[in-house]
Design goal:
Strand content: 15-25%
Order of helices and strands: HEHEHEHEHEHEHHEEEHHHH
Shape: elongated
Number of helices: 12
CATH architecture of the largest domain: 3-Layer(aba) Sandwich
Number of strands: 9
Number of domains: 2
Distance between the termini: 68 Å
Amino acid sequence: MSKLSNIGTIKQLLQKHGFTFSKAMGQNFLINPSVCPRMAEECGAAEGVGVIEIGAGIGVLTVELAQRADKVVVIELDKRLMPLLDETLADYDNIKIINEDVLKVDLAKLIEDEFAGMEVVVCANLPYYITSPIIMGILEARLPIKGLTVMVQKEAAQRICAPAASREAGAVTLAVRYYSEPEILFHVSRGSFMPAPDVDSCVIRLNILPQPAVDVKDEKMFFRVVRGAFAQRRKTLSNTLSSTMGVGKSEVAAVLESAGLSATARAEELTLQQFGTLADCFVKYFEDNAK
């Protein structure tokens, strides 16, 4: 089926299948015809490549992916879209639709079962309310994928792709950069969607690193320190880490000193490597105090 980004076509499809948009699911369908072809190209969909798409909508992006990749597996939560997708994707025999919550799907097994011998990428137009859980869930799973290309709220894109040790950086910035090299690909205006959201969007790509960006003794400690440091980002590290790590201020000051950091430093001033060093120093502190 052609012209899936055409407003008239969309309205006819929705009326035919009795579909109404769900605010709870953050549904906004693309009506800008230039976005999905570019997104499919930028994500790496090509011959010899398999694509996992998260959230199909009515299949606008799915069609573009299927025209380029060897196989597309779509994970769509809304069961009301199943008959709609059966119609819009009927011309393609390289698409499989899974009606599930992506956060509950065993993606490692899916890749093993569906994409044997293929390079795999993930592509998604994510609902704003669940952007971080999906991105971090995929990164933390250490899946055998080359990259993750997603459309997210502009503000989220800027935060995710911010350099470490910058005012825009947050806990998600450091977590993403631990696993990948993020980049903003292009902007998408709010008028590109139906219904139009209240904010603009960006398409970003996370290029998965073969190994984490920093070598740490304990990953759980690393992420605990990162989350703790940004929990009260306006406060100094000595204050916020004392609260979040359950350690006295004088002890935190000593750990910071051992990591080569000032007690008056703030989370947004630290590089990824400095966070790694700090986490290792906390590992040593807890080991020493457990004896």
